Amino acid sequence: MKKLIMICAVILGFTVTASAQTDNKAEFKFVEEKHDFGKIPQGKPVTTEFTFTNIGEEPLILSNVQPTCGCTIADFTKTPVLKGAKGVIKITYNAAVASVFSKTIVVTSNAKTPTKNLIIMGEVMPAAAVAGSK
User: Which strands, in side-by-side order, build the sheet including 34-41?
Assistant: First the structure.
């Protein structure tokens, strides 16, 4: 009886290991996950693009890209990103208020890591201060 239980345990172990190795989910590989705009002039929106590659086997599908504040707008690749292909998440920050900022953009997808956070940061300088520094 002990041999039978041991054989079943070994077979179960091999089955679990084999299924874990065949995880074919999509997966992100970003060029950068944090972007620093540095000092930017007040009243002039700035834009950056987060480029990523699907390094998984299945097509990568972005279901939502949600900035955590209304001062940030996101546009992203809406079609499935095939294995080895690239996609883009374009972020525009409305630099209306003079202050230091750090904003998070939450990316939801079908990837192994289904939620990914991207960060933009910088400092909005009053228009007069930027004009005086030229």
Answer: 34-41, 115-125, 100-109, 62-67
